[in-house]
Write a structure and sequence with these properties.
Blueprint: E1 27-31, H1 32-37, H2 39-47, E2 51-56, E3 59-64, H3 74-87, H4 95-103
Parallel strand pairs: 1-2
Antiparallel strand pairs: 2-3
């Protein structure tokens, strides 16, 4: 049986799972060989929001899922840099003294 892995097509319903038509809710099981063969099509489905479980001999071994975008908090990043700079000291030496030591 050949699976149609193009986005938007309905998935074959498993006996133990309810019929799910929404790509965001759908989970598809794919064998490792089939995943290797159809990886570009699987990645398109994952990019559309679908989760895909890769199995080997019927046992789940991996899951493809969409990446959750992260937006860094600029205030937190600034505070982290400030905290880091407090721990970096050169002791009693001035910057000029350190430069001169490096030239010797």
């Amino acid at each position: 049986m050949k699976l149609d892995l193009t986005p938007g097509n309905s998935l074959p319903a498993a006996d133990n799972q309810p019929d799910q038509t929404s790509l965001e809710e759908a989970v598809m099981d794919v064998g490792a060989f089939e995943a290797k063969t159809h990886l570009p099509a699987l990645l398109k489905r994952v990019a559309a929001g679908e989760r895909i479980t890769i199995t080997r001999h019927g046992q789940p071994v991996a899951q493809l899922a969409p990446v959750q975008p992260t937006t860094p908090d600029p205030i937190a990043a600034i505070e982290e840099l400030r905290g880091f700079s407090l721990g970096c000291t050169s002791g009693e030496s001035s910057v000029r003294a350190l430069i001169e030591d490096g030239r010797r």
